[in-house]
Amino acid sequence: MKSVFQTSLLFLKNGATVVGLITAVLFQVFFNTIWLSGYDQVNARMNQLAVTIVNEDGAAAEPVANSLAEGLHFAIKPSATMEEARQMLTDRDVYMIIEIPSGFMQQAGDLSSPVTVKYVMNESNVATVKSVMQTVSAQVTATLNREVQQNSIRGVLNQSGMAADQANTMAVGLSSRVEAEVERLNPVHNFAFSMVPMLIVTATFTGAMLLGMNLQKVSGELSSRAGKWERFWARNIINVGAAFIVSLVGAGMMHVMGVSSADGWWMLWLFQLLITLSFLFVAQLSLLLLGNAGAWLNSALLPLLMLSSGATIPRDVMPDFYQQIGHYLPATYAVEGMMNLVLGGDGISHDVLLLVMIGAATLVLGALCTWIKRSGPAQSGIPLESKSSATPVALTGNLPSPDRG
Predict the structure, then answer these.
(1) Which pLDDT belongs to residue 404?
(2) For labelling, which of 65, 171, 230, 399 has a CA lying 20 to 30 Å from the CA of 204?
(3) Where, by residue number, does the polypeptide cross the bilayer (predicted)?
(4) What is the pTM of this model?
């Protein structure tokens, strides 16, 4: 037992063990700080999700449309036509269309038939949006029922002088005359598919973190045999090769599990390749900029990427800080592009452009970090290189201390 304790002390004297312990603690700090602050009061901010009301019944239904807009506790974005509204829904500028059809008020005056209001939802979104919009549609239907009931009773009273008790009896029959017609844009029949964007962000950046840490370690070990530029470009050659392999395996696994894209498997693979490259360059930049501490920066980036990308909740309901920082992180465009490819959408050209720009920018910044760093032996990356157990403890203080590279 004594030898076990002595061996435990040897583990604790090794820098890699200490770094590992600190990293485990920092993961708790980063995830708790970022996720809990990002999700704080999300329910209260759900009213920031936007819907649009399309009134195709003209001036006759204007009071009803205005009453809906005032009664809904959600952001209302104007749209003049269904075509414009559908484009806003596809672009995720709004999350539901409420259509008041032509002839709505005329139908409301005909007590012999129900009145239909139409809702159009885009299921190419995180699961949270679907459940919230279903609640909104029920709320709107109840509001319209009340409006139709009041208008019908008013008309009956004006035309026939019906007694109030008779009007109240009729109101019971009128209270459920409005029927909801729901159209689902890009319907998602398998919940697992809606999790693909979050899967891509989490798995890809975690892999990029681990590969970057090990390449940093190898770069330090090769510092006496190769210059800083040779090691920098060698790392990036390996990054490109790894991106091909990782994305091929990832896209292949998705195909095996039944995930497909309307644009074909090749487009899915190529887009995942671009995502992987941009994540690798971001993870590498942290290490080139901060050396060993870059691994801790990457640990903070992981929950930040997952949250600010909109992979778990719509970005519209996040605190402003997370909404703004998401514009500069590749995960945002990875999630949007994967939603469009796998769940349905309006193309990925915008997301491809932004991923290329972020990837290029981080690669250039990585080269700049290499350029300003002095030549010489490089610091071994995390996990730290273990010292040989045969090295006397008294001599370790005299060993040359490696620098960063």
Answers:
(1) 44
(2) 230
(3) 12-31, 191-211, 232-254, 266-288, 295-313, 352-372
(4) 0.72
